[in-house]
Amino acid sequence: MAWTTEASYNWCQQFARRAASNFYYSFLVLPRSKRRAMCALYAFLRRTDDLGDNPRPAAERRAALAAWRRSLEQALAGRFEAPLFPALADTVSRYRIPPEYLRSAIDGVEMDLDGRTYETFDELADYCYKVASVVGLSCIHVWGFDDPAALEPARKCGIAFQLTNILRDLKQDAAAGRIYLPQEDLRRFHCTADDLLDGRRRAGFARLMRFQIERAEQFYREAGELEHWLQADGRAVFGAMTGIYRGLLEEIKRLDGDVFSAPIRLSTWRKLGIAGRWLLARHAWWRFHPAAAEPAGPSTVRVRAR
């Protein structure tokens, strides 16, 4: 079937809505054109993640990701093999998103196929860049930003989000053979991979979690600088997205790191409430800045991929 760009955007929106992810609720604060672009990005990233994280043998998943990488390159050249690609290609072109970010996202998912561990936080940060920071860097091109200084806090925001995901999913990831916390940290607090797999909360585990929570909080603080460089649309969606993810981290902190007793999540109503507050803030900004036309196109800043 040949998909028009409009039909592709509609498909991506339906896909994102069905997934009802933490990201999707933050998209609601954006104007229609940017919201559709975010859905196209989300559809590609979610599909990439699903190809790498499923019960099939690792060799089959690796082959599927290789085929997906070829499909991405074809889409960037104007040839589309899946319904999400016309919208993705239009988004990349319209908002001048460096394609290298999308390639890096596939690289990051491929890293999970090896069941590798990370000796140091620097090694983990490189993984976080590929699976999360490139998402933030892609997003700010859609949202609009005024200076290349936005790139570094966007990178740190991705790390903060991914650290939150890692802490939330410790046991599930361990069961899948993935230990993301740096080995040097596990040794420092006398914890083992078996502790994570079995959900054992020894004294050292509580200290380990407090250390990781503090690390994530520091990245959130440094990522906060991004707000100063974003256009009004971007400030609203960044605030909503950060509010939701910081809410997850705050829940982990409230439970003193107990991510084993029950799933860590925010209710749909709470996520809608966070998005709603930022939507009102965005409307208030435009009301008191009537001379500022709502930016419909890409940022005028040109930057290169990492």
Question: How is this fold's topology laid out?
Answer:
Blueprint: H1 5-19, H2 22-27, H3 32-52, H4 58-76, H5 85-94, H6 99-112, H7 121-143, H8 151-168, H9 170-175, H10 183-188, H11 193-198, H12 203-223, H13 232-254, H14 268-288
Helix pairs in contact: 1-3, 1-5, 3-5, 3-6, 3-7, 4-5, 4-6, 6-7, 7-8, 8-12, 8-13, 12-13, 13-14
What does this structure look like?
With 306 residues, the protein is mainly α. The chain contains 14 helices and no strands. The protein has helices at residues 5-19, 22-27, 32-52, 58-76, 85-94, 99-112, 121-143, 151-168, 170-175, 183-188, 193-198, 203-223, 232-254, 268-288. Helix 7 (121-143) packs across helix 8. The two termini are 36 Å apart. The model is unreliable at 278-306 (pLDDT under 50).
Condensed summary:
The protein is mainly α. It is 68% helix and 0% strand. The protein has helices spanning 5-19, 22-27, 32-52, 58-76, 85-94, 99-112, 121-143, 151-168, 170-175, 183-188, 193-198, 203-223, 232-254, 268-288.
